[in-house]
Design brief:
globular; alpha/beta; eight-stranded parallel barrel; 12 strands
Length: 340
């Protein structure tokens, strides 16, 4: 019988799990595994990797995550998988919002087909951030539009496409990264906007999609709420805004703990996010010492966080909804440039 599942997600370094990674996974039982381009070669290899992970943790539905948004954030691509357009390309099409939503849903559903065929059941999209003047290009064309209403409508369509293909969406970056003037991979962004402005724009898409199963936090300081802590480690942001104002009761994972926006040891960062009220730690790499710190600071997946995790996985049980892949591609290609 395996050890209890712990509330963290780990990465791995290559196309196959090493003996060291296998031993770590077996001992520490992460809830999920996240994949990047370094882990992707061809369909048979990805299938083997996802099967190996699930065999070790002895959970046939164990989450395997990836960032497959389209555009510059697409881990699986040619020659084995299609190139998908970025969110902004679909969001800026000169057609009605209903037509754009339909195309976003098609694109997400096509991606879900690709992912599910390889054993990947969680896609870290859609981006619900609303870009603002002065915001860093780390979001840029990953956003569906420049106003909250468009982002909400098209973000919902992306979620519907993924769920129709029985892949879980992860709405990000809760409660909003669009105003951040820095890339949180490299430094800590500080947003000084008023609470009224944040509520009217940044928080609105998350409020509109607050029934989704999974979300990812932003490593961003909002001085109007908590000038001392980024959202990921802020009790006030999590309690009063993520859970309170926005009303999100799904599972909230952190953004990557290795990003330079967060300070301290991996043990300290992990403890801080759980203390703030998040449900899951995300560590996107595999350095044995750092990974062990994350694992040891992550609690057993129980109580409310276990309920949220179970509720999410139940949403993708059963067969995908009926879908005509060729027709969906034809609709996309009818409005996009031949290069896509």
């Amino acid at each position: 019988m395996p050890a209890p599942t712990r509330a963290f997600i780990t990465g791995c370094n290559a196309l196959q799990l090493t003996d060291e990674e296998r031993a770590f996974i077996k001992k520490n039982q992460p809830w999920g595994l996240i994949l990047f381009k370094r882990n992707i070669d061809n369909p048979a290899q990805v299938i083997q990797l996802t099967e190996d992970f699930r065999e070790i943790v002895e959970r046939e539905n164990a989450p395997v995550l990836i960032d497959q948004e389209g555009g510059r954030v697409q881990r699986m691509g040619p020659p084995h998988w299609p190139k998908y357009p970025p969110a902004a390309t679909l969001g800026n099409l000169p057609v009605s919002i209903q037509t754009r939503a339909s195309l976003v849903c098609d694109s997400a559903r096509l991606m879900a087909e690709d992912l599910r065929a390889c054993g990947i059941n969680v896609d870290c999209m859609p981006v619900l951030d609303v870009p603002a003047p002065g915001g860093h290009d780390v979001i840029g064309d990953r956003a569906y539009g420049k106003d909250a209403a468009t982002v909400t409508s098209l973000g919902r369509a992306a979620c519907e496409g993924l769920l129709g293909g029985r892949v879980l969406p992860v709405i990000k970056h809760l409660p909003g990264h669009g105003r951040a003037g820095a890339d949180s991979h490299l430094e800590l962004p500080v947003v000084t906007a008023s609470l009224a402005d944040l509520t009217a724009s940044d928080f609105a898409p998350f409020l509109g999609l607050n029934t989704m199963p999974l979300a990812m936090s932003a490593h961003v300081v909002y001085t109007a709420i908590d000038p001392d802590h980024p959202a990921t480690t802020s009790k006030k942001v999590v309690r009063d805004y993520m859970r309170g104002h926005i009303g999100f009761d799904g599972l909230i994972m952190s953004d990557d703990l290795a990003m330079k926006a967060l300070k301290g040891s991996f043990h300290e960062k992990t403890e801080a996010l759980f203390s703030a009220g998040l449900d899951m730690a995300l560590y996107c790499h595999f350095d044995a010492a750092s990974a062990q710190e994350v694992a040891e600071a992550s609690p057993v997946l129980d109580g409310k966080r276990a309920e949220r995790a179970l509720r999410a996985l139940k949403m993708i049980e059963g067969k995908p909804d009926p879908f005509d892949r060729d027709a969906a591609w034809a609709r996309l290609q009818g409005v996009l440039s031949p290069s896509v």
